[in-house]
């Protein structure tokens, strides 16, 4: 395959709804924050490309999940969970063994 530009939708997921409280009749995916991360098939062909994409996905997860207040260094459990779920959803959506292995290794390492 050539350099097919693919869009990746990164969802904040269920954690975003937990932070907002009960959402009433709203649908979870319609209200979840999202960010598009572009990548190509060539990116997934090398370990360095996979690491770079993973880093970009992690940064996107930080952007779609609530931020830590500037006056504290304490990271709320809900924020960490939101970021983990958003990153896991993005990795699962891409469905690449290298990326999945990197993600699994990073979360096991803590």
Into how many domains do the coordinates divide? 1
State the low-pLDDT regions, or none. Answer: 1-28
Sheet with most strands:
2 strands, antiparallel
What would you report as the Rg, rounded to the nearest angstrom?
15 Å
Helix content percent band: 40-55%
How many distinct helices? 5
* H-E string: EHHEHHH
Helix- and strand-based class?
mainly alpha
Overall mean pLDDT stands at 74
Strand content: 5-15%
Order of strands, main sheet, comes to 1-2
> What separation lies between the terminal Cα atoms?
35 Å
- Total number of beta strands: 2
Topology:
Layout: E1 6-11, H1 14-20, H2 28-31, E2 34-39, H3 47-64, H4 77-94, H5 97-109
Antiparallel strand pairs: 1-2
Helix pairs in contact: 1-4, 3-4, 3-5
List descriptors.
single chain; 110 residues; mainly alpha; two-stranded antiparallel ribbon; 5 helices; 2 strands; disordered N terminus
Structure description:
- This protein is mainly alpha-helical.
- Helix content is about 55%, strand content about 10%.
- The protein has a two-stranded antiparallel ribbon.
- Helix 3 crosses helix 5.
- The chain is globular, with a radius of gyration of 15 Å.
